[in-house]
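Thread: "does anyone have the structure for this chain?"

Original post by V.I.:
We have the sequence but no experimental structure in hand. Need at least a predicted one for the grant figures.
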Amino acid sequence: MISVLDVPQEWLPKNTFQYPPHQGHSPLIEERAYAFFTDQNRVFETDYIYIPIQWTMYHCSNNWGNDTAKIAEMQRWMDALAEEYPDKKFFTIVQYDDGTLVSIENCKVFAASNSPKSPKASTQEYIPIPLLSDPHPGSPKEHRMNKVGFAGRNDTHPMRKMMCDKLMGTPDYKFAVNISGDLSQAFRDIIYDSVFGLAPRGYGPTSFRMYETMQMGAIPIYISDVFWLPFEDEIDWEKAALLVHPDDIDTIPVKVDAILDSGEYENYLEYGRIVYEKYLTWDGTLNQIAKIISK
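Reply from O.Q.:
Generated one for you, tokens below.
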């Protein structure tokens, strides 16, 4: 069984937020990882010690990571850890957009996002993992009416507004932007009826839309100035998604039409389905993390 650090109980809060809305209060990746890596029926051969802190819920519950006293207390604990175990290696898993907000020596941080706001020790490595949520109910329509679809907010990053300004009004592109209440049903209605789904970055360099779109059987168009892509040593992301820099948003309609006209979209969809089932489910991602720390 893997070695798990005994951390203060207050650093292990359960999920109390309903986000994304369709997921309700289901566990986030940190809580699922804790159950996964402490499962008595699983055997892990690794030199890494697991730091099981529930980073997202802890930071969100303490002024969204802005409680300087709490962060300072956590940093002192991490510094003492490095002194107590100078020759040990650690790993932890974080969904929070700003990462751990503390530096941890000799640690692999499997992160669903990344931000310059989070300090990093010289021996600390951030490794991308997908920003996952529970699967949406439903299934793709056999004949999809929309070339491209998007439902979401356009105010979490300036790039989103730029995307909407440039692409809204394009024939066969369907948008639902900043509508009141839960967007989940509008998102399902649009993406299940679209070949492509727009997945612009938000506050962090990625978004739930990237992986929700793949789960829902569409091709993501990932728009970002920084591509935060998991498991690149095993996934050829250019076969699963369109990766678009903000300066190239204007080229999206031409690229989409070329892929549709050539029939190449079927290859994207098939490869995306394989990638999603192997790597981008909860168990797929956690199994991949276990594989990495076991190398």
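V.I.: this helps a lot. The longest strand covers residues 146-152.
O.Q.: and The CA atoms of residues 72 and 225 lie 31 Å apart.
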